TrEMBL record:
One GO CC annotation: plasma membrane
Highest taxon of source: Bacteria
Name of the protein in question: Sugar phosphate permease
MF annotations from Gene Ontology: transmembrane transporter activity
Major facilitator superfamily (MFS) profile domain mapped to chain residues: 20-421
Length: 439
């Protein structure tokens, strides 16, 4: 019994990992599925509403224009007001907008519904990331953000069968309604039950765990309370440095995402084979995210981890341009390693952001980085498509370009090493009494 007690106590004092993070991941998996499910509906929309190719492209892309609007206010509101209330409001609005897509009858109504969905979802991610920052000391953030990023492979694995099942027994209208409403109700209830704006307000948190979180943040030089401003975010050079780096990584990631199905189709021919092997890169990505995030927290060297992963992604993508589709197992191996490398840097990256971005720019700055970075999602497809046309329909030039994009991102990360080392040696902040109050 004496050996079990310490272990039991440790488990009891890890509720920030077992309460907060699973709810956050679940919420953003729903978010990601609602964002991407239109790709499964487009063939049906083309038939039922007579959409042209250009209209289908606009219906898919208009989401991202709405998504930009609340990026900066999202992190700001979570920090200055209440992450719990702010995200709950956005979840309700996003559910309404998602379900509204199932009731549209004209192209204009579809565009409006998708745009409003983007607006509502746009404020969610920076608010969730600000929440993680509040609940996890810097020494744990690489792992925490890595777990959050699991929404990408999880949603990628679940989206197709979930949407396909609904479309098999119903139509595209019910797909939007069910995916927009049903799961989100569960997510909203879980969010309201579990979430508190600060550890001090969480009645389910032990005193030891709350004290550990607050003491660790203070020892790392972070005050528990601060008031950020929009001006500080826009005027911070390091925020724009991170934003440019994130833009490049998103370009590379989206380039890989768009390239993957086409190359797999050429290599494996049948839809069943493609569907099966397409899951493997996502599984590898999930494993890589956790391993890199864990290693960065335990060993330090966040910048070294990012550079290593980004360089690996650059080499894999560039080298894959030399592989013929007939070498299908080499193609699959390159895609598995490339997909893993393309997002495994996520945990150390956002942990570094929380350490180097000035506190006055923290909430709005995270939104600015995420918002500007997502411009890579707009630029990537156009550049990739243009390069594919330029090379006569081949993907070699496209792969080489996106490999170069990852290499440039790695070069931008390198100068952060000295800054992160200096920030890690910051003076501790004096503790201020924070009453434990349930909300």
């Amino acid at each position: 019994m004496t050996e079990r007690t310490p272990k039991t106590r440790r488990l009891a004092e890890m509720k920030r990992w077992t309460y907060i993070l699973p709810v956050i991941v679940f919420i953003y998996v729903i978010c990601y599925i609602d964002r991407t499910n239109i790709s499964f509906a487009l063939p049906h929309l083309k038939t039922d509403m007579g959409l042209s190719g250009a209209q289908q492209g606009l219906a898919s892309g208009i989401f991202f224009w709405g998504y930009l609007l609340l990026q900066i206010p999202g992190g700001y509101m979570a920090e200055r007001w209440s992450a719990k209330r702010w995200i709950a409001i956005l979840m309700v609005l996003w559910s309404i907008a998602a379900m509204a897509s199932g009731f549209v009858n004209t192209f204009g109504e579809l565009i409006l519904a998708r745009f409003l969905l983007g607006v509502a979802e746009g404020g969610v991610q920076p608010a969730l990331m600000a929440t993680i920052r509040c609940w996890f000391p810097f020494a744990e953030r690489s792992r925490a953000y890595a777990i959050f990023k699991l929404y990408t492979p999880i949603a990628a694995i679940l989206a197709a069968p979930f949407s396909g099942l609904i479309l098999t027994f119903a139509d595209w209208r019910w797909m939007f309604i069910i995916q927009g409403g049903g799961p989100l109700v569960v997510g909203l209830i879980a969010w309201l039950v579990v979430m508190r704006d600060t550890p001090a307000k969480a009645g389910w948190l032990s005193v030891n765990e709350r004290n550990f979180i607050e003491r660790s943040r203070l020892e790392e030089g972070e005050p528990l309370k601060h008031r950020g401003t929009f001006k500080a975010a826009f005027s911070s050079g390091i925020v724009w440095h991170f934003a440019l780096t994130y833009t490049l990584t998103q370009m590379g990631l989206l380039g890989l995402t768009l390239w993957l199905p086409s190359v797999l189709k050429k290599a494996f021919h049948t839809d069943m084979q493609v569907g099966f092997v397409a899951i493997l890169p996502q599984i590898a990505a999930g494993i890589a995210i956790i391993l890199i995030g864990r290693s960065a927290d335990r060993r330090g060297g966040h910048v070294a981890h990012m550079v290593a992963v980004l360089v690996a992604g650059a080499l894999i993508l560039s080298g894959a341009s030399l592989i013929s589709p007939s070498q299908k197992w080499l193609v699959l191996g390159a895609l598995i390693l490339g997909t893993a490398a393309s997002i495994a840097w996520y945990g150390p990256f956002w942990a570094t952001v929380t350490k180097l971005v000035p506190l006055a720019a923290a909430g709005a700055g995270m939104g600015l980085i995420n918002g500007v970075g997502n411009l890579g999602s707009f630029i990537g497809p156009y550049v990739g498509g243009w390069l594919t046309d330029l090379s006569g329909g081949g993907y070699a030039l496209t792969q080489a370009f996106f490999g170069l994009v990852f290499a440039l991102a790695a070069l931008l990360v390198l100068p952060l090493r000295k800054k992160l080392r200096a920030a890690a040696n910051a003076e501790p902040v004096k503790a201020e009494p924070v009453p434990a109050v349930k909300d």
